[in-house]
């Protein structure tokens, strides 16, 4: 099967939806579910294992550290073997990690197990973006990517109310047994439904490059002005959003707003719903802009302005309903993901996997450092007696993160130029 780029087709058919968008979207849903589920079971982990904030942050961020470390190998595998085989095998590894997490007896084993899960789900978004870049008409890739991200919002939804119900009635360990089975099922679906091959012509002149040649291709990618104009913005804006969405929003609702477990799960569900809706809205806006040669830069900056307003409301503990604050946060949280489309346009399908996973490496390294760093900073401020209550400590730490995000977006606005 040849890629859509070789045919020049412009429509997304039912076959492409069933074979490309659907299975890889399910893979990303699973990835986001695992990324977020610790925010719901955090009270169980704290009670059973006597964790402090930094310990909870370390266990949760182990997913992100392993996810990050595997990004460059992932890019090589995606470009060499294609998203179908690569993602299916990695999902099977994630299922094994979930099983390990379910039987883990101590914090160290939980940390290692979550790292295995992170490695297995490292291709959740990049495999989908690579598949879209290979098989879909170029003008429709921004919309398709946003549909995938919207499925991630369904993963957040599943990680809140449904997962909280499961953990309350059957225990958090039973939840992870179930997640292991579901992840293995998704691995089978990806392998069975997705197109075979890597999307490249199969004659001898286009045979796969050696591993060394593939690694050499990363150098020119990292040397471009486009990459380093985009990278800090994606790393700190999307990375910061991931860090607070997957753990610290729930802790802020608990520690500052003093909500009980059920209310926290309800507010996280609101954020999941708005995240999915915002991803679709962003996708339609980006699709409209991309096809009219307007560019995606203004869309990304507009999303950040909305995100920053929500973060500022949380930092100041604005007298607004918690569901509204976190809902607006979710609404704008996916905007910076449009940068992956810019990289795909810049480097083309043959290098898209390595370009996007190089960016993803920086993104999830920042997310992991921010997620664990927020926990360490909160514990440090508490230890030195900073502030009269938790709200001051959260305001200080999250305010510092917002300042870094603003600087990264200003850098992005100043240094990037879009191709028309």
From TrEMBL:
Read off the Gene3D superfamilies from this record.
Answer: MFS general substrate transporter like domains (1.20.1250.20)
Please give the start and end residues of each transmembrane region: 12-34, 54-76, 88-105, 111-129, 141-162, 174-194, 226-248, 268-286, 298-316, 322-340, 361-388, 394-413
Q: Which SUPFAM superfamilies match?
A: MFS general substrate transporter
Q: Which UniProt keywords apply?
A: Cell membrane, Membrane, Transmembrane, Transmembrane helix
Q: Which PROSITE patterns match?
A: MFS
Q: Where located?
A: Cell membrane
Q: Which residues form the Major facilitator superfamily (MFS) profile domain?
A: 20-417
Asked whether the UniProt record includes Electron transport among its keywords, one would answer: no
Topology term for the membrane: Multi-pass membrane protein
- Where is this protein primarily located? membrane
Q: Which InterPro entries match?
A: MFS, MFS_dom, MFS_Efflux_Transporters, MFS_trans_sf
The entry's protein name is MFS transporter
| Species, as recorded | Dongia sedimenti
Organism lineage reads as: Bacteria, Pseudomonadati, Pseudomonadota, Alphaproteobacteria, Rhodospirillales
């Amino acid at each position: 099967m040849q890629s859509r780029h070789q045919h020049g087709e412009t429509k997304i058919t039912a076959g492409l939806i069933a074979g490309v968008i659907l299975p890889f979207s399910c893979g990303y849903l699973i990835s986001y579910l695992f990324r977020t589920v610790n925010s719901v079971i955090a009270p169980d982990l704290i009670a059973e294992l006597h964790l402090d904030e930094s310990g909870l942050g370390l266990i949760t961020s182990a997913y992100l550290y392993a996810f990050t470390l595997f990004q460059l190998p992932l890019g090589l595998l995606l470009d060499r073997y294609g998203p179908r085989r690569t993602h299916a095998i990695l999902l099977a590894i994630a299922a094994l990690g979930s099983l390990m997490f379910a039987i883990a007896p101590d914090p160290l084993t939980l940390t290692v197990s979550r790292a295995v899960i992170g490695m297995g789900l490292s291709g959740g978004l990049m495999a989908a973006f690579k598949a879209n870049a290979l098989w879909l008409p170029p003008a429709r890739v921004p919309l398709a990517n946003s549909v995938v991200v919207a499925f991630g919002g369904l993963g957040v939804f599943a990680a809140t109310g449904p997962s909280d119900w499961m953990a309350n009635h059957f225990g958090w360990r039973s939840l992870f047994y179930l997640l292991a089975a579901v992840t293995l099922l998704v691995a089978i679906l990806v392998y069975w439904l997705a197109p075979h091959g890597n999307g490249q012509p199969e004659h001898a002149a286009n045979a796969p490059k050696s591993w060394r040649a593939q690694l050499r291709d990363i150098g020119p990618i990292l040397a471009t002005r486009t990459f380093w104009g985009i990278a800090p913005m994606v790393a700190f804006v999307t990375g910061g959003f991931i860090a607070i969405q997957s753990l610290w929003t729930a802790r802020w609702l608990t520690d500052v707003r003093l909500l009980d477990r059920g209310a926290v799960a309800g507010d996280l569900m609101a954020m999941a719903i708005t995240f999915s809706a915002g991803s679709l809205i962003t996708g339609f806006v980006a699709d409209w802009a991309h096809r009219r040669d307007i560019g995606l830069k203004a869309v990304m900056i507009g999303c950040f302005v909305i995100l920053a307003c929500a973060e500022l409301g949380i930092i100041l503990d604005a007298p607004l309903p918690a569901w509204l604050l976190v809902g607006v946060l979710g609404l704008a949280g996916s905007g910076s993901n449009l940068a992956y489309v810019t990289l795909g346009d810049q480097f083309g399908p043959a290098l898209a996997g390595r370009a996007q996973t190089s960016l993803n490496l920086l993104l999830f390294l920042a997310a992991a450092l921010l997620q664990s760093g927020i926990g360490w900073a909160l514990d440090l401020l508490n230890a030195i007696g900073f502030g009269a209550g938790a709200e001051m400590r959260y305001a200080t730490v999250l305010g510092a993160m917002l300042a870094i995000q603003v600087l990264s977006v200003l850098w992005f606005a100043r240094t990037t130029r879009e191709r028309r």
